[in-house]
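Sequence in, structure out. Go.
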Amino acid sequence: MLLLFFLVWVVFNGRLTLEIALFGVAAAVAVFAFVCRFMDYSLQKELRFYRRIPAFFHYLYHLIREIIAANIAVFRLILTRKEQTEPVIVHVHTDLRSETARVILANSITLTPGTITVSMTDDDLLVHCLDRSLSAGMEDSVFVRLLKEMEEM
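Output:
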């Protein structure tokens, strides 16, 4: 957040000079100290966030790749009339610890075409799949593995 506060300062000023940068650093540190003191935030959480940035981009890369692959699979389902689609609702149990990771997993499933997360309760997701073939390997997907790695950071 410290970096974000500084970037907001620079954007609001519209230009970057030494004077603006120095005042921006001072203002960002003051706001960051306020946030740490009164909003249950800490420097350790900030450093953990920065350590997770490369893992986040790695996750984003895999998400985009899976979205493209699911687009192709749904496109194939639409174009081939000889196959009859078999919609299915799948119960997915995950052992992700944080609610944030479970929400990211549910949203990632919903973002991929052909699948929608219908409900999420604690460690369980209810996912509607356009076809049974789209439900294969959902519990041990790359999303779950990467989110577990991010939780351990």
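Check: Residues 43-79 form the longest helix (37 residues). Residues 74 and 114 are 6 Å apart (CA to CA).
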